[in-house]
Write a structure and sequence with these properties.
alpha+beta; Alpha-Beta Plaits; two-stranded antiparallel ribbon
């Protein structure tokens, strides 16, 4: 089955291959033979330029460039310029992986385009200095290098765009949900508005109100809310389309009857039945979407009442930006309940759920209101301590570890159980990709479990 993404990939691969084929072997050889010193100088000039940009400096720092990015950019440039001898499908996949990372970090596309422009400009200057070579050959090498860098950037963008849109949707949903004090209140308000429209419509038809005074569902209080706010609040495009189609179906049914057939009692009765049936479907779908919103989209895990992982990217990006601008570190910790599977196997899922809820509550109560506690998945939790250093975090989590080790959790009428946790800690190191920090905390957690559990390990 072909998707839009696979069609884009096929087109890009075909055009990339055509670009390779149209370029002479001598031009390919010239670009492949650029020495390491020349390419590393290009990379150095590129990062010097980007570090001077205020916008770019939010995502880059000199230590990060020296330790990681210089080497990554060198190998990227070498592979793209030498793509005639590379596997183009593998090369395309690598560009899209870079695009996913850019989306995760939130790097604006205009910044990527600016960097590509600078890189091409410096490459053209480098090739122009090779005056001993044939001018036509230099021209071919310039054309190929320009187009192949554009192709690589386009490949990044095909992966970047969906990821960026998804991140923006989650960010907007998080913002909207933070505005609503109580999703349940909004649910009842909109269900009430829908019912009010239906009751008013039935009354208006029954009393013979002129057709021009009949308010269509789309123009009602509920309809305006749905088209301007509701569509952005809910997830699930299929249900949204169905709901939108039902609203339009109601209005089309009304238009079909008014003003020509409204005097016919049988037609008017059938209209009321049809509208009632369609509005019932709208009500049913709206209820299910609000139920899902309350259960998941309000950002809370239904079992532990902690934040779920959906908003980790939104919150991590925000805290990373704050940490970089303020220079104040933060801590990420991964926490795992030791031998949790045995609890479920020996005492059942009810005891397992009680254990999860009890530990989640203790963790949440042990940190500040400014910190974040997530249920990361299964028996694992993630904690973000803002403006905190490693030494402080170690004391906080050791206190939590001891508190949990002293808990008594009822398992049966006669017996209770004790539980312990393992903790991995990592301090933010100015890398803009939050997944790197999660991996470090996860590695530290793995080390804590490997070293005997019921302990804390610090990454590095």
């Amino acid at each position: 089955m072909h998707t839009e993404q696979s069609d884009n990939n096929e087109l890009l691969l075909a055009e990339w291959q055509e670009l390779v084929n149209l370029t002479s072997s001598d031009a390919h050889e010239l670009l492949r033979d650029l020495c390491e010193e020349e390419l590393r100088q290009l990379v150095s000039v590129f990062y010097d330029y980007m570090l001077q940009d205020k916008k770019a400096s939010l995502y880059l720092n000199t230590q990060q460039v020296a330790n990681q990015l210089n080497e990554s950019m060198y190998h990227w440039l070498r592979s793209v310029l030498g793509s005639a001898t590379e596997s183009l499908s593998a090369l395309l996949e690598r560009q899209q992986q870079v695009g996913v990372i850019h989306a995760r970090i939130g790097i604006p596309t205009d910044l990527v385009a600016r960097g590509a422009r600078k890189l091409k400009n410096e490459l053209f200057r480098l090739l122009d200095r090779k005056r001993n070579l044939d001018a036509a050959l230099i021209n071919q090498a310039v054309c190929f290098s320009s187009l192949v860098i554009d192709t690589a950037i386009e490949a990044m963008t095909t992966a970047y765009s969906p990821g960026y849109k998804s991140a923006m949707r989650d960010q907007e949903r998080y913002r909207i949900l933070s505005i609503y004090d109580d999703v349940n209140v909004e649910r009842e308000r909109q269900l009430g508005a829908l019912m009010n429209w239906e009751n008013q419509f039935i009354y208006n038809v029954a009393t013979g109100l002129p057709s021009e005074e009949i308010v269509l569902l789309e123009k009602s209080e509920f309809g305006l809310w749905f088209f301007h706010k509701g569509r952005h609040l809910f997830n699930g495009p299929d249900l949204l389309k169905k709901l939108e189609a039902l609203i339009r179906q109601v209005d089309n049914r009304v238009r079909e009857t008014f003003p020509h057939h409204v005097e016919n009692t049988a037609i008017r009765t059938q209209l009321l039945r049809d509208v009632r049936q369609l509005v019932g479907q709208v009500n049913s779908i709206l209820c299910s979407m609000f139920d899902e919103l309350i259960k998941f989209e309000n950002g809370k895990d239904p079992l532990t009442n902690l934040l779920n992982r959906r908003f980790i990217p939104t919150i991590m990006r925000r805290e990373i930006a704050l940490a970089i601008s303020s220079g104040k570190p933060f801590i990420l910790a991964m926490i795992d309940i030791d031998h949790f599977k045995k609890i479920n196997d020996n005492y059942g899922h009810e005891t397992g759920n009680l254990t999860l809820k009890t530990i989640a509550t203790k963790i949440y109560e042990s940190v500040r209101s400014s910190d974040y506690v997530f249920r990361y998945g299964g028996e694992e939790f993630m904690v973000l301590l803002v403006e905190t250093q490693t030494s402080q975090a170690a004391m906080i989590f050791d206190s939590i570890r001891q508190l949990i080790a002293g808990l008594y959790i009822p398992a049966t009428a006669e017996k209770g159980i004790s539980v312990t946790i393992s903790v991995g800690i990592a301090e933010f190191d100015n890398h803009p990709d939050y997944q790197q920090l999660i991996k470090k905390a996860d590695n530290a957690l793995y080390q804590a479990k490997a070293n005997g559990r019921n302990r804390i390990e610090i990454f590095g």
